[in-house]
Amino acid sequence: MAQQPYSNGPVQNQLVQSPDGQGYSPAVPGSYSHQMPAKVPPHQSSGQYSYSGSQNVSQLNNYQGPGQTLNRPPVAAFSGSPVQQPGPVSQALPPALQNSAAVSCAGTFPPGASPPVLSNWQYSQTPVSQPLGAQTSHLAHVPGTGSAQPPSSLPGSTNPAETYQYAASPGAPPLQNSYMKPGSAPPPVTQPLTPLHPPRPPLGPPPATPHHSPAAPNLKMNRSVGYSYPALPPGYQHTSPPGAPGMNASALQYPDGSKHFHQPALGTNHLTASMAGLSLQQEGLRPVNLLQERNILPTTLLKAPVPNLHEDIQKLNCNPELFRCTLTNIPQTQALLNKAKLPLGLLLHPFKDLSQLPVVTSSIIVRCRSCRTYINPFVSFLDQRRWKCNLCYRVNDVPEEFLYNPVTRVYGEPHKRPEVQNATIEFMAPSEYMLRPPQPPVYLFVFDVSHNAVETGYLNTVCQTLLDNLDSLPGNTRTKIGFITFDSTIHFYSLQEGLSQPQMLIVSDIEDVFIPMPENLLVNLNENKELIQDLLRTLPQMFTKSLETHSALGPALQAAFKLMSPTGGRITVFQTQLPSVGMGALKSREEPNQRATAKDIHLTPSTDFYKKLALDCSGQQVAVDLFLLSGQYSDLASLGCISRYSAGSVYYYQSYHHKHNPVQVEKLQKELKRYLTRKIGFEAVMRIRCTKGLSIHTFHGNFFVRSTDLLSLPNVNPDAGYAVQMSVEESLTDMQVVSFQSALLYTSSKGERRIRVHTMCLPVVTTLSEVYLGADVQAITGLLANMAVDRSVSATLSDARDALVNAVIDSLAAYRSSVLSIQQPGLTAPFSLRLFPLYILALLKQKSFQTGTNTRLDERIFTMCQVKNQPLVYLMLMTHPSLYRVDSLTDEGALNINDRTIPQPPLLQLSVEKLSRDGAYLMDAGSVMFLWIGKNCGQGFISQVLGVPNYGSIPQNMTHLPELETAESIRTRTFISWLREQRPFFPILYIIKDESPLKSIFLQNMIEDRTESALSYYEFLLHIQQQVNK
Questions:
Q1: What is the C-alpha separation between 706 and 104, in angstroms, rounded?
Q2: How many CA atoms, within 13 angstroms, populate the side-chain half-sphere of residue 425?
Q3: What span, in angstroms and rounded, lies between the C-alpha atoms of 381 and 229?
Q4: Residues with Cβ within 8 Å of residue 22, at least 6 apart in sequence
Q5: String of DSSP letters for 797-821
Q6: In whole angstroms, how far apart are CA 743 and each of 18, 470, 684, 719, 912?
Q7: Which CATH superfamily hosts domain 882-1005?
Q8: What is the model's pLDDT at position 851?
Q9: Cα torsion for 821, 824, 830, 835, to the nearest 10°?
Q10: According to the model, what pLDDT value does residue 407 have?
Q11: What does the pLDDT read at residue 284?
Q12: CB contact at 8 A, 296 and 833
């Protein structure tokens, strides 16, 4: 414990913190900066949310999504590091340290077994023998089915990367305000609380009468698992706490220990919470008749619901952008979960770029001896020397060193250490967390140089972007780099010191690939920079005369794997066609006329070559990222496996051509820059743990499941999301709250072994109405989308579509029959699920799941990859785009960020009814944007924003707004660039008129309207109503 043992994010003292708060590669400047500046709302009332101590609230947190008016700082108080992400634990521990007692997941699957096709998706892990009356098709999972690779095997899971608003703003659904507000009267206390130390108001649960009034079924009073040593509510004092057999709960009350630290009790607000809270809760349960209330879409981006926890606990909770659960009220039993007909699962964005991250450099990492959970804000200290794990309830000793708090420099306050004050934290890992010395950053680029590839002109863009960003590749003095090109043969490039120019070595035996001169093919970037730059300048010209049309992608990848396996690292491969020779050669399977039929479309790989190679790569800590730039069918279903199982990512540029499709060039250049310069973690593993009684049974995302609950991630990037499905294995009786923890162990590009831990705490409930009250409709939609991708691949597309529709029917029917006391005509949904039918309809119209002949197979597969690998916020935008009217933007309610004023127009429903011919509308669909100009749009907007005299002179293929110095132009461009900055990919902006060929795509995104092959929103509601009322 020599020097400064800690560096803890934003707390002010001299912390060992790198400028960007991450310890590596700061956010990319310019259009990709992920560090969103903080905006302090003008009328912030000082006492509204305490952000524990004097920490600046993370910029990210303080930043609202488009359309949001700020009326108070977002409630994200995650002290210190407001942002956190999930990630599992103890990964590559040496076997001796690995512990399988971690709450292990129920069934993961024997290699090779494929999940049986079930017509019923149950959310539980119940056996398939369901009563015949059950709805056909619920998303089911049966333990022990699937394969050792995540059954989830399509890439991509999502999680809230940017659901920035979790401030409960007055206009927001009232259920978000249900926890007790700082402004409300303190709970009436019916008997004096044990005196604790005076500076704190009495926060523990008041010992109110344990029975609840029917008026507030959701405010329950349970045994406090929390932080206060004393004062358990009467009636609980002598029960033995779960998991601590033989220990009297009264043992929790140490008369002396408790004086030192009173911590608020975890758990929901109790009955004594101000009555205002009750009426808010009831409003949250208000039934909404969807057939009558047509304008249910909020005018600002939807926020994650705030769990109904005591606010001292909630302010320590994990940021929902990083870790989010489909149900913020966890059902006490599997039977209750089954009854609700909603899926239980988590959505994670564990490696998200954070503007603040407390980093602990202490010599000691405190973990539970039994289940290996990392100490976190939701454990309870029995006294100074003992703490109780919040996942398995084991009582652990507090190590001597942990009694000293390096931030406050006080001895004897373990509960104030940063590890216990931040739900997201990063530890510098000691040597026992390494199986080998941390690897150097190694980057290998593999380029298709066949005639087809040269014709697209992609090499110019890629080599130039690499040249521009060589110095920004994450790394240190050990960074290595290498290049391979291929057509029907494989070309290596020796970059040996002393050569005057790079030397090309050709291997034409693609059946048995060998590596010539391996020591000079991957070289130190700093020592050989001139040769590397020389190669990047000459590569685009080297193959211009090539007539070689064949593509030996398989052998090129085998060569790349052999070259990389001694160290591990990242392979980046660029491919422009179907591989045609050598191992992994493929044949075209797309028949344009059958594109549409939901029957036999080829969503499964045609060979296991790419999956097997990916698993070999994963075993050697190598990930493969695929950039597919192709106008023809390239069988992405097969090629994508190389990235899915090696924890890589897939990028797809349909019909890329430097002359015929110039907007794609800018897109590739911007996305490649972000890809090359974003932070990266090497040789990573992630484990997700949860309170005993809960179990994880299916993972979604790009990775390989190494043991039941350990995900192998040879590379981890800040733009990847993951999802998991869960079930309640044992009843959560006597538990007031449950916790989830993800731990991600990785090697940073600077060669440090680090562990990023996120912990989330949620209340347990016993009634169906409370389960519905806490439903997070976006997280539910995201998890169902992941499950539906799996269903499409294991069964058929139409099965997946049916299961999505049945998910809505079943949950609304359960709500109608079990929660509604008065049966009303119409289609009734709880307020929390009012957008559920709309979001599911949007999924059915999304490219992954739509029917109709206009979706190319590779495009469908790519969208499925995105569903499985994108954080929730991007998935939701891709599924249900945002529509704004932009011809009359004002500064009213605007955000002010870094001296920029960003207009916040309200969101509109996705229906042509909302369009007026005299307006201009921006549709933000995530990876693409459309600016639709109405025929009678005002002359002012056309000349001052588009820079042309009138509607008729707007060019057909306009994709950029001119930089004019008019107020209207500045507002419009600022708004668009602000939307673009918030994401890792670059959406092209298409400016379209009535007669534009792209208008049909714009109209297809009008989810609420009817299309040739899909119902309108109103027709869909009628269909749901008919089924619910059966």
A1: 13
A2: 29
A3: 7
A4: 353, 354, 357, 679
A5: HHHHHHHHHHHHHHHHHHHHHHT-S
A6: 22, 31, 10, 17, 46
A7: Severin (3.40.20.10)
A8: 86
A9: 170
A10: 82
A11: 66
A12: no
pLDDT at residue 741 in the model: 98
Question: Strand 358-360 vs strand 6-8: parallel, antiparallel, or unpaired?
Answer: antiparallel
What distance in Å separates the CA atoms of residue 377 and residue 90, rounded to the nearest whole number?
19
Inter-residue contact 656 to 632 (CB < 8 Å): no
List of E strands, 69-169: none
- CA–CA gap between residue 683 and residue 620 (Å, rounded): 9
- For residue 804, the model assigns a pLDDT of 97
Question: What is the pairing mode between strands 358-360 and 424-428?
Answer: parallel
Q: Which CATH class is domain 311-434+682-775?
A: mainly beta
- How confident is the model at residue 250, as a pLDDT? 34
Backbone angles phi, psi at 573, to 5 degrees: -115, 135
Domain regions of the chain by residue span: 311-434+682-775, 442-589+598-678, 882-1005
pLDDT (0 to 100) of residue 593: 56
Which tokens in the block code for residue 465?
A: 């972007």
Secondary structure (3-state) at 771: helix
The predicted model scores a pTM of: 0.76
Give the integer Cα–Cα distance in Å for 931 and 954.
12
Give CA 131 to chain center in angstroms: 35
Between the alpha carbon of residue 618 and those of residues 93, 570, 624, 680, 755, the distances in Å are 16, 11, 9, 16, 20
808 neighbors 838 (Cβ within 8 angstroms): no
Q: What does the alpha-carbon distance between residue 961 and residue 986 come to, in Å, rounded to a whole number?
A: 15
Neighbours of 194 (CB within 10 A): 15
Strand partners, 359: 7, 426
Asked if 888 and 922 touch (Cβ cutoff 8 Å), the reply is: no
* 442-589+598-678 CATH, one of 3.40.50.300, 2.60.40.10, 3.40.50.410, 3.30.110.40: 3.40.50.410
Query: Which residues of the chain carry a pLDDT beneath 70?
Result: 1-284, 591-600, 853
Report the alpha-carbon distance of residue 255 to residue 239 in Å, rounded.
19
Neighbour tally for 594: CB within 10 Å: 13
Return the amino acid letter for 77: A
For 280-318, what is each residue's pLDDT tens digit?
455 667 899 999 988 899 999 999 999 999 989 999 999
Beta-bridge partners for 585: none
Element (H, E) at 687: strand 681-690
What crossing angle do the helices spanning 1017-1028 and 797-818 adopt, rounded to 10°?
60
